[in-house]
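Bumping with the actual sequence this time:
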Amino acid sequence: MRIALCDDERREVDNLHDLIENYALKKDYDLSIECFTSPRALLKKDRYDLYFLDFLMDEMDGVELARGLNEKFGGAVTIVYLTNFEDAAVQIINGRVYADGFLKKPVDPGLLFEKLDAFYKNSFWGRLELRQGRSYRTVYARDIYYVEARGKTSMVFFAEGSEEYSHLLSEMDEKLTGGKLFCRIHRSYIVNMMYVSSYDAKSVTLVSGVTLPLKNRDFQRVYREYIFRQML
């Protein structure tokens, strides 16, 4: 797993690096950790599996940096904010930049390890091996915007386009919904709640602008539980 740490205070980023390195040694995990004190330098790099971003930095704040990462990688980035401010979560939500978690500075090692355990448990919400005829492709579940039933196959939609896979929607449902990131909203659709922009009684709209029919009466509860978990 590749992790990027970005904080314009060198002491803070070095301390977090040491904590994560100790975690990896204890768990015997293979981690690659790269530290940045410049948000613009981080934006020039390829995608990492997990980002820890300071909320307030002089060159560029964490929200602006997250927007840049989302635009560059199609919204498929995992971000944990580091902040001293209690109202950071509200500012982030109002700014339409969603986070996968928050850690208050100075970082508590126990809380950090719990957060890393959760990411590992869900394998970043899963790597899927999907079948296309006689071949297979491995994808990150979090890169999927939504899935649509196409008879005996499923069309999977990503930021960069769509691909058809040789799985019934019921099979995709089993693969995806156990991680609490996806919800089956209709007999023909499964959505990634990371990319939900808005919803009403009859439809769900994604950040891409796509609007899908909603038939799951339990969606509001499931979505609110998902949002609440992101604040922990």
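The tokens above came from a reply further down the thread. The longest strand covers residues 144-150.
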